[in-house]
Design a protein that fits this description.
- By secondary structure, the chain is α+β, with helices and mostly antiparallel strands.
- The protein folds into two domains: 52 residues, no CATH class; 188 residues, no CATH class.
- 21% of the residues lie in helices and 18% in strands.
- It is built from eight helices and ten strands.
- The strands form three sheets. A five-stranded antiparallel beta sheet has the order 8-7-6-5-9, with no helix packed on it. The chain has a three-stranded antiparallel beta sheet with strand order 3-4-10.
- β7 and β8 form a beta hairpin.
- The longest helix is centred in the N-terminal third of the chain and has 11 residues.
- The protein is globular, with a radius of gyration of 19 Å.
């Protein structure tokens, strides 16, 4: 069984393995992961996590894993988003599957990644990985109420969308997040996974063109992930340096 599991990535094993109990995947797979087995402090560690469903598994992984694996978790294959209103947290609820081959591409095109993977990688003098799971480019903050995912890419793309209609109709969701849809202007941006101007394979590999669509408020820094309609257009690519005063810690996504 160990030999069979080792052919898949850690995240594929954690999220695509069938178990009778949700927490069984932590007991069976976490000890096999060199980077992450340090999180097992004692025999009660897993039971104390309180994981009860696959959403709680994904959130726990987002908290633990390194930046590269967080990006794989985030840029996943999504279930269709309900037309009426997305579910919170929007960055974790509509997960379908890990994108096959994405981990390899993040290694191959590390310098073109829109998030600074290099800043988190490295080994100490004893050959131990220094990754702490801090992930400054993608950081999960557990608030006890609405968990926040902070995204700090190098670039983002402003989008042109119709602010009326369904994009501004999630009244109860916006109110829950502290926004007034009658007063707060909605804006749209997308965050590409790769800055692909210099990547020749973009036309043949869709994974190199993945992005995250965000709707929200610049003023309040409140954003949700929600797919744009077919009529949305890219407006311009911008550097996060231009938003240092507005969003010093990046986009706060719910």
């Amino acid at each position: 069984m160990r030999r069979c599991l080792s052919k898949r990535t850690f995240l594929e094993m954690m999220l695509h393995t069938k178990t009778s109990q949700v927490e069984d995947r932590f007991h069976a797979i976490l000890p096999l992961a060199t980077k992450y087995r340090r999180f097992i402090k004692n025999r009660d560690t897993i039971s104390n996590l309180g994981v009860s469903n696959m959403l709680s598994v994904r959130l726990q992984l987002m908290e633990w894993v390194d930046l590269k694996d967080r990006l794989v978790l985030l840029f996943n294959e999504h279930q269709p988003t309900p037309a009426a209103c997305p579910f919170l947290p929007t960055y974790a609820t509509h997960f379908k599957a890990i994108q096959p081959g994405l981990t390899k591409l993040l290694t191959q095109y590390k310098s073109q990644c829109n998030f600074d993977i290099n800043a988190e990688e490295g080994e100490d003098g004893n050959g131990n990985n220094n990754t702490s799971g801090g992930g400054s480019g993608v950081r999960l903050v557990r608030t006890g109420k609405l968990d926040e995912l902070w995204l700090c890419p190098r670039m983002y793309c402003e989008r042109q969308v119709n602010p009326n209609g369904k994009l501004s109709s999630f009244n109860h969701l916006w109110h829950d997040l502290g926004m007034d849809p009658a007063k707060d202007l909605l804006h749209a941006v997308s965050i590409p996974l790769f800055i692909n101007d210099d990547i020749k394979d973009c036309s043949t590999n869709r994974l190199l063109t993945l992005d995250l669509p965000l709707l929200g408020s610049w003023e309040k820094n409140i954003w949700i992930m929600y797919p744009f309609d077919a009529n949305s257009k890219e407006f311009k690519m911008c550097s996060m340096e231009s938003q240092k005063q507005t969003l010093p810690k990046g986009f706060r996504v719910y």
